[in-house]
Amino acid sequence: MRLLFCGSIGAAVCTLACGGGANWERPPPETASDDFALPGDVGTKEIATPAPKDLSLKELAHLAKSSLVVVRANGGLGTGFSVSKRGWVVTNLHVIEGADQVQVQDPNEQVHNVTAVRAFDRANDLAILEAPTLALPALPIATTIPETGEAVVAVGHPQGLTATVSNGIVSAVREFPSGVAALQFTAPISPGSSGGPLLNNKGHVVGVVVALLKESQNVNFAATSAALARMATQPRLPMPLSRFAELTAPNQAAPDPTPAQSRPVAHAEARPSFPQAVGGFVFGSTLADASSACSERREYETIQWLRSTQEQAECPFLPIDIPFGEAPLTMWFTAGRLGTVVLTAKSFDEVRVSLVSKYGKPDALRSFNPRTKSWSEAARWKKGDPGGVFWNLSGGTVAVLSLDGTTVFVHYRAAFAAAMESESY
Fold first, then answer.
1. pLDDT beyond 90 at 102
2. Which of 115, 69, 108 minimizes the C-alpha distance to 92?
3. What DSSP assignment string belongs to 270-329?
4. pLDDT the model gives residue 136
């Protein structure tokens, strides 16, 4: 049994459907102004009007084709569709990952250069591109998840056959151990369909095609419109393609996502190094990597315990013991990479002794005002006071914090996470 997949959805499907023994493949891309149309979207005056009644298959095909594009990157092609007349296009992340040159071709066969990536979501294999010269009608994004048995239509470019329409039903709504939800549907798809819209009878996008299970009969998967809506409505600056290519280059072991101008320079007095991993979780790794680390192998199965959203995850145990820390361990992901880890300290004294012996005297002491929720420089910080101590290391910051004077947390933040947040990506 083989799945053409991408992102955490494909990995999760493998865990459930294949029992760990299947041969999984990334689906090869086939070789050869309004804001988002989302009810309640900010700043939108002319949102695509939802269809007042069910549309015929012919009407759905016409609606989708007018918004469909061919996405060309990395020598292959995928599918995309317009969600804004400002040239914003949704596709799969795997179609464009690592690419510093991307083009989209509209229904009139005009080619437009993509200048930036507005947002991307590794867990759901989604990306939003910006092609300023493109101006296609936007497909409205559904605000509810379809029910099992509901009719759907998939539109895309399977095997390079442009604007192919197929229909089927929603077979199931799956939620995988990683916390990622996906629609299982029966409308036929093939390589090249990746990134295409999955429409309901109203003409609303209920999903984005991401995967198919090979050697099976129409067992296909789509990211949900809810995942797309979350990503679409989070304000971000456009990311230049050159920067995007650095962050998403495939077949590399956690590339350094820190902008060159933000990387530390050599000093006469070298700082201690920021840890590469905490509790078994490697900084710079993906949500899928974290899910694999937060798993328990039993005799007949592997159980994944990670609870996650798009940008945050929590593991209820420590895969690798930390003498001064205890579970749960909370993680935050920046641009799809693990950048921040927080765990609870067993005791103030134990963590203080351990970190001072490892990193030396703290670089800063700060007090915390619980009433105003503000920090200020302090001459000292002692047990029982809200506040914290900070070590500025080569590659990141380590802090021991208490917001209430009772519970003490250890906070690890990689330098790239701070740098990316300052870039507003």
1. yes
2. 69
3. PPPBPPSEETTEETT--HHHHHHHSEEE-SS-EEE--EE-SSEEEESS-SS--TTEEEEE
4. 95
3-state secondary structure at position 378: coil
**Domains, the chain:** 2-243 (2.40.10.120), 260-423 (no CATH)
SS3 134: coil
Nearest to 123 by CA among 310, 385, 343: 310
Q: What is the pLDDT of residues 145-162, one digit of tens each?
A: 899 999 999 999 999 999
Element (DSSP H or E) covering residue 210? strand 205-214
Beta pairing class for 23-25 and 2-4? parallel
Which DSSP string corresponds to 336-368?
A: TEEEEEEEEES-HHHHHHHHHHHH-S-SEEEEE
Q: What value does the mean pLDDT take over residues 217-242?
A: 85
- More confident call, 280 vs 304: 280
Amino acid at 334: T
Backbone angles phi, psi at 64, to 5 degrees: -70, -40
SS3 245: helix
When pLDDT is cut at 50, 70 and 90, the band that residue 46 belongs to is very low
Could you tell me the pTM of the whole model?
0.63
Cα distance between residue 56 and residue 41, in whole Å = 28
